[in-house]
Structures are given as C-alpha cells and as structure tokens.
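Researcher: Next sequence.
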Amino acid sequence: MKHVRGAPYHPQTQGKIERWHQTMKNRILLENYYMPGDLEAQIERFIDYYNHHRYHESVRRTRSI
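Model: Next structure:
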C-alpha cells in the first residue's frame, strides 16, 4: 500500500478523509456526552461499526465477510 498525500489546505484533494470526518461528525452530534470518557467510547464504537459491520455499497456486503 502506498501512502498518497493531497495538497495541504485543499479539501478537494482530501475527499475520502473529508467524507469520513463529515460522517463521524454527523454521528457524534446526534448524542450528548456527560462523562469524560463517553465521547471517546462512542468514537471507538463508531469506528468499529464503520470498519467491520456497516453495509458497503460498492461491494454490496459488509466488510467483515
């Protein structure tokens, strides 16, 4: 795997990571966090769901299969 960098301060070349940030931000804003570790725990759960359990449109299945 080759690490490819986009142009700094140019969101159009950072499309995939910008979309990831938008997805996570929208999910996190749906809930309130009252305890110090609540936000971190929710982020960990979301990352696990996103990487292993969600339906992936382009391959028409979950990634864990």
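Model: The first strand starts at residue 55 and ends at 56. DSSP finds two helices and two strands in the chain.
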